[in-house]
Amino acid sequence: MYSKKVVIRYTADNVDQPIICQLVKKHDLDFNILKAQILPRREGVIVVELTGSKENFDRGMRFLKEKGLQVEPVSKNVSQNTDKCVHCGACIAFCPTDSLYLDKQSMKVLFDAEKCNGCEFCVMACPVRAMEVNIF
């Protein structure tokens, strides 16, 4: 089984369509809604965890993009504010995916968003709030 958390952004043109229902029926994906903000006849954002085979997940992502939806991994919504970061390393100890690591040459904490699973442990661990989540 393959599982991934994604952010789906709706536009006014497609906010009234049964997109998640079609992911389940046509692409055999299970879903768990983590956060949602849908405004009728305007726009919307939904954060879901999709589970199924990798092939069905990839087909589902193509379907969403064909429908004109913007899809991005949750990890793109966790970011490091380098202006706030004091490079103390507190976040590193809590990161289960090694997305945060210490560059031994510069002695700075670096963030690899591609490895991030969006767990937000780093956000809670950071004493200066340099790790930020921007879901909506």
What's the architecture of the largest domain, going by CATH?
2-Layer Sandwich
Q: How many structural domains does the protein architecture include?
A: 2
N-to-C CA distance: 28 Å
Side by side, the strands of the main sheet go: 2-3-1-4
Mean of all residue-level pLDDT scores: 89
Proportion of strand residues: 25-35%
Taken in chain order, the helices and strands follow as EHEEHEEEEHE
* CATH superfamily (homologous) name of the largest domain: ACT domain
Oligomer: single chain
Would you identify the regions where 5 or more consecutive residues have pLDDT less than 50? none
**Tally the helices: what do you get?**
3
Compute the number of strand runs.
8
Which secondary-structure class do the elements indicate?
Answer: alpha+beta
How many whole angstroms does the radius of gyration measure?
A: 17 Å
Give the structure's gist in a few sentences.
The protein is of the alpha+beta class and 136 residues long.
Structure overview:
It is a single chain. The model has no long low-confidence stretch (mean pLDDT 89). Helices cover 20% and strands 33% of the residues. The strands form 3 sheets. A 4-stranded antiparallel sheet has the order 2-3-1-4. The chain has helices spanning 19-27, 54-66, 121-125; strands at 2-10, 30-38, 44-52, 70-73, 78-80, 100-103, 108-111, 131-133. α1 (19-27) runs antiparallel to α2. It has 3 helices and 8 strands. It has 136 residues and is of the alpha+beta class. The protein has 2 domains: 2-68, 2-Layer Sandwich (Alpha-Beta Plaits), CATH 3.30.70.260; 77-133, Alpha-Beta Plaits (2-Layer Sandwich), CATH 3.30.70.
